[in-house]
Amino acid sequence: MSVQSRFSSIVHSSLNKQWLHIFGCGAIGSNVAILLDKMGVTKFSLYDFDNVEQPNIGVSPFIPRDIGKVEMLKEKLDASAHVDCINEEVKEDTTLEFNKNSIAILAFDSMKARMLVAEKICEAKIKLLIDGRMGAELFQMYVIKNPTIKEYKKVWYSDEEGSEEPCTAKATPWCGTLTGSFISNAVSKIVSGHPCPRELFFHFPSMTMDWKT
Predict the structure, then answer these.
(1) 154-170 per-position pLDDT tens digit
(2) Cys bridge to 128: 93, 103, 136, 180, which one at CB 3.0-4.6 A?
(3) How far lies 103's CA from each of 36, 48, 90, 114, 189, in Å?
(4) Rg (CA), the chain
């Protein structure tokens, strides 16, 4: 029996043809990878040059024995999946490989790093870019089909313009988990041709959500 048998009528089987590029494998990226793996994605490129540290464990699927974030995330995915681990910082001269089935998830903490990668993604003319942002107890998701840098700049802001929470109010376990769920659901909707919000905001303290189609 397939691991997808409980939701095979909900999640489109064409997910197994997608190539997921996840930039940042912390609270957001790790949850997205694990959920999409369960949903049937079989090819991943995971980008993160940080290590798992004690604070990461509280807001992600990692456990105390996990060190080396990208490599340990690979171990949590299906053994039959093809997983490339890129544990080097993406720089101006970094070459990224994409194909027609590529989907990119931006989950870096740094907005500067997001812009750098977004420029490479848009130049490659991939079909889908999802930018997930998490600060304290607010989640933001931006879904851009056939992304261009002009479109991405409309929803981007600099690190200086973003809010800076104290170190004890950066994230929560439920924030990371629900963030991964929203992004994975968005990927499934786009791949199956169903409507999906372009922008979505979830405020955890009030349990309220707003979105734009």
Answers:
(1) 999 998 887 666 666 66
(2) 103
(3) 12, 17, 17, 15, 13
(4) 16
* Chain position carrying tokens 């973003």: 162
Q: How many CB atoms lie within 10 A of CB 132?
A: 25
Q: Which two tokens stand for residue 156?
A: 């981007």
Write the pLDDT tens digit of every residue in 46-78: 998 876 666 666 566 665 565 556 778 888 898
Distance, in Å, from the CA atom of 63 to the CA atom of 70, rounded to the nearest integer, reads 13
Q: Phi-psi bin for 33: left (phi > 0), alpha (psi -120 to 50), beta?
A: alpha
Contact residues for 147 (Cβ-Cβ < 8 A; gap 6+): 118, 121, 122, 126, 128, 129
Q: Is 83 helix (H, G, I), strand (E, B) or coil?
A: strand
